[in-house]
Design brief:
heterodimer; A: 292 residues; MetI-like fold; 12 helices; 2% strand; globular; B: 302 residues; mainly alpha; 0% strand; cell membrane (chain B)
Chain lengths: 292, 302
C-alpha cells in the first residue's frame, strides 16, 4: 500500500534531486542549455565544471552566500521563536473554560485558511507607505511611520511580521492539541501538592508538550528556512536584495536575467545539506534528552 | 503522598492556600477572578482582531470605488459590488478559478488517498525500510523548490505534462503527501490494533479492513489532511507560475496580472482575493472542528 507513494515520490522528488545535483556540477545557464528555437533544435553546450560552483559559493567568492545565509538564519530563528511563543500563549488561553471559546478559536485560526498569496497581498495593501492603514494605526499609538517595503531593515521587519501572522495558527492548533492530551490528573495531583501555576507550567505542561514542541520546532525550522511566498510576493520586484533568504535568492538566480540554472541548483543542494545536517543534529539531541 | 519532605516556607503556605478551598471541593484551575477574566478575554479579543484584521480590511476595500485603497474613508458612503462584477465579467478570473478548483480538488483527492494509505501502511505493516521511510518523508520537506523546479520542469516536459493540470497536481502531491502521511501515521497509531484484527477475523482483506473500519475512525485526521492538501494547491505560486501557460493559469498566478511592475490595481486585487478566500474558508469551516484532534493525534505526536 505504500508503493504508490514511494513511486510518486521517487519519480518526482529523487529524480529531480539527482538531476539538480548534476546541474550543480555544470555551468548550465539559459544560454547553453538545449532548447528549441522555432523548428531548430539547439543541443546543450554546457560542460561539467565539477565542484567549481560549490567552491565559489562556499569560499564566499560569489559574495552573496554568507550574507544571505546569516539573514536566513536570523529570519528562521526569529520566526520560529515568535511562532512558538505566541502560539503557546494563545493555546494556553484557549485551553480554559470560557465563553465564546469556539468563536475565538475560529477567528484565531483564520489566517491559516487564507492562502499565503492572498494574505501577503492584504499585507502589502496595508503596509503601503503612502496610503497604507498600517502606518495610520502605528502613528495613532505614537510610533513613527515607516516606509515598510523600501528600506532593508523595514523590509526585514515586515516579512517577519507577515510570516508570523501566517504561521501562528498552525503552531497554536498543534500546541492546543498537545495541551489537551496532557492528563488532567497530573494537574490535580500537583494542585494537591501545592504547586504554583508557574511550577505546574514548568514541571507538567512543558514536559507534557515536549513531543509536540519537538516536532513543531523541527518542521517550523524547515518550513521557515524554505519559505518562498512571503518574501517573494511581499517584496516583489522592489526588493533591495537584502531581505532575500537563500531560497528566494536561488529562485531569482534561476528565473531573472540570464537564468543561472547551475548556480540555483548549487544553492538548492547547499540548502538541503544545511537542513539535513540541522535535523540530524536536532533528532540526535532529542533522542539523547529522551533517554536521559 | 501528602507528607511533605520539603519544608520551604513558600511551599507550606501554597499548600495551606490550596488545602482550604479543596475542602469546599469547588476550587479548580478553571476558576478565576473577574480581573483575570477581563485580562483573558481582552487578550483573546485583541489577538482575534490582529488575526482577522487583514481579511476584514481587504473585504472592506473591495466594496468601495476604484480609488478606495487610497482613501478608505470613501468606502462607507459608496458601497458597491462593482469590483466584483468587473473581476467576474471583464477578466479571465472565472477561468483561473476553474483551473484552481481542478488542481486543488485533484491534489486533495490524490493527497488524501496517498497519505492515508501510506500512513496506514507505515503504522501497521513492518517492511524493509519502514523506519527510513518516515525519515525520508521528513527529508522531502527540506528540498527547496529552487533546486527542484528546473529538473521537475524537464521531467514533466518529457511526459508532456507542462501546461497540464495533472502535472501540477502531481507536483503539489509531492509537497503535501509526505507531511500528511506523517500525520496520518501518528493518527492511525492511536487506533487500537484490535480493530484490524477483528476485521481480519471477519474475513476482510487488508484493504477492506482499512477502507471499511479504519478510514471511518480516522475522519479527523483525514479532514486535516484534506485541508492541508487543498491549501497547498490553492495557494502555491512558484511552480504554478513556471509550469502553466496563460490558458491554464491558476488563481495565484492569474491575480498577479492585476499588478504590474510599478502599480497594483487594488480594486481588482481585493475583490479577486475575497473571491479566492471563499472556497478556502468553506473548506476551513468544514474541517475546523476536526483540526485540533486531527493534528494532535497525528503528526505532532510521532
Amino acid at each position: 500500500m505504500v508503493a504508490p507513494v514511494v513511486i510518486v515520490l521517487a519519480v518526482l522528488v529523487l529524480y529531480p534531486l539527482g538531476y539538480g545535483f548534476y546541474l550543480s556540477l555544470t555551468d548550465a545557464n539559459e544560454a547553453n542549455v538545449a532548447r528549441d528555437i522555432g523548428a531548430f533544435h539547439a543541443p546543450a553546450t554546457y560542460k561539467m565544471v565539477w565542484f567549481d560552483n560549490y567552491w565559489s559559493v562556499l569560499s564566499g567568492a560569489d559574495g552573496d552566500f554568507y550574507p544571505r545565509l546569516i539573514w536566513t538564519v536570523i529570519w528562521t530563528l526569529s520566526c520560529v521563536v515568535l511562532h512558538i511563543a505566541i502560539g503557546m500563549g494563545l493555546a494556553l488561553l484557549l485551553n480554559r473554560q470560557m465563553r465564546a471559546k469556539l468563536l475565538y478559536r475560529a477567528l484565531l485560526i483564520l489566517p491559516w485558511a487564507v492562502p499565503a498569496f492572498v494574505g501577503v497581498f492584504a499585507w502589502r495593501l496595508m503596509l503601503n507607505s503612502q496610503y497604507g492603514v498600517f502606518n495610520d494605526m502605528i502613528t495613532a499609538v505614537g510610533l513613527p511611520a515607516q516606509n515598510w517595503l523600501a528600506t532593508p531593515f523595514a523590509q526585514k521587519t515586515a516579512v517577519i511580521m507577515v510570516n508570523v501572522w501566517i504561521g501562528v495558527p498552525f503552531n497554536m492548533v498543534a500546541l492546543l492539541g498537545g495541551l489537551q492530551s496532557i492528563p488532567k490528573e497530573l494537574y490535580e495531583a500537583a494542585e494537591m501538592d501545592g504547586a504554583s501555576p508557574w511550577q505546574r507550567f514548568v514541571h507538567i505542561t512543558l514536559p507534557g508538550l515536549r513531543p509536540v514542541t519537538n516536532t513543531v520546532v523541527l518542521l517550523g525550522c524547515i518550513w521557515t528556512f524554505n519559505m518562498f511566498a512571503v518574501i517573494y510576493l511581499l517584496l516583489g520586484q522592489n526588493t533591495t536584495g537584502e531581505a532575500d533568504i537563500l531560497v528566494t535568492f536561488a529562485f531569482r538566480k534561476a528565473f531573472t536575467g540570464v537564468s543561472d540554472y547551475s548556480g540555483a541548483a548549487t544553492y538548492g543542494i547547499v540548502i538541503l545539506a544545511l537542513l539535513l545536517a540541522f535535523s540530524t543534529f536536532y533528532r540526535r539531541r532529542q533522542l539523547k534528552t529522551e533517554q536521559a | 503522598m501528602t507528607s511533605a519532605t520539603t519544608h520551604s516556607p513558600a511551599s507550606v503556605t501554597a499548600r495551606a492556600e490550596a488545602a482550604a478551598p479543596r475542602a469546599k471541593k469547588v476550587r479548580g484551575r478553571e476558576e478565576r477572578s473577574t480581573l483575570a477574566s477581563v485580562a483573558l478575554h481582552g487578550t483573546l479579543i485583541l489577538a482575534s482582531l490582529v488575526a482577522a484584521f487583514p481579511v476584514v480590511w481587504i473585504v472592506f476595500i473591495s466594496l468601495g470605488p476604484k480609488t478606495a485603497w487610497q482613501s478608505p474613508g470613501e468606502v462607507l458612503g459608496n458601497l458597491s459590488l462593482d469590483n466584483y462584477a468587473k473581476v467576474l465579467t471583464d477578466t479571465d478570473f472565472p477561468q483561473w478559478f476553474g483551473a484552481s478548483v481542478i488542481v486543488a480538488g485533484g491534489t486533495t483527492v490524490l493527497g488524501v488517498f496517498l497519505a492515508a494509505s501510506a500512513g496506514y501502511a507505515v503504522s501497521r505493516m513492518r517492511f524493509p525500510g519502514h523506519r527510513q521511510l518516515m525519515w525520508s518523508f521528513l527529508v522531502t520537506q527540506m528540498f527547496p523548490m529552487a533546486v527542484l523546479i528546473v529538473p521537475l520542469y524537464e521531467l514533466l516536459a518529457r511526459f508532456d505534462l507542462i501546461d497540464n493540470y495533472l502535472g501540477l497536481i502531481l507536483t503539489y502531491a509531492t509537497t503535501a503527501v509526505p507531511f500528511c502521511a506523517w500525520m496520518m501515521k501518528g493518527y492511525f497509531d492511536t487506533i487500537p490494533h484490535e480493530i484490524d484484527e477483528a476485521g481480519r477475523v471477519d474475513g476482510l482483506t487488508p484493504f477492506g479492513t482499512f477502507w471499511r473500519l479504519i478510514v471511518p475512525l480516522a475522519k479527523p485526521g483525514l479532514a486535516v489532511t484534506a485541508f492541508y492538501s487543498f491549501l497547498t494547491a490553492w495557494g502555491e505560486v512558484a511552480y504554478a507560475s513556471q509550469f502553466m501557460g496563460a490558458d491554464h493559469y491558476t488563481l495565484a498566478v492569474g491575480i498577479r496580472t492585476f499588478a504590474t511592475e510599478s502599480r497594483a490595481d487594488w480594486a481588482m486585487m481585493t475583490a479577486a482575493s475575497v473571491l479566492i478566500l471563499i472556497p478556502a474558508t468553506l473548506v476551513f469551516l468544514l474541517v475546523q472542528r476536526n483540526l485540533v484532534s486531527g493534528l494532535t493525534a497525528g503528526g505532532t505526536k510521532s
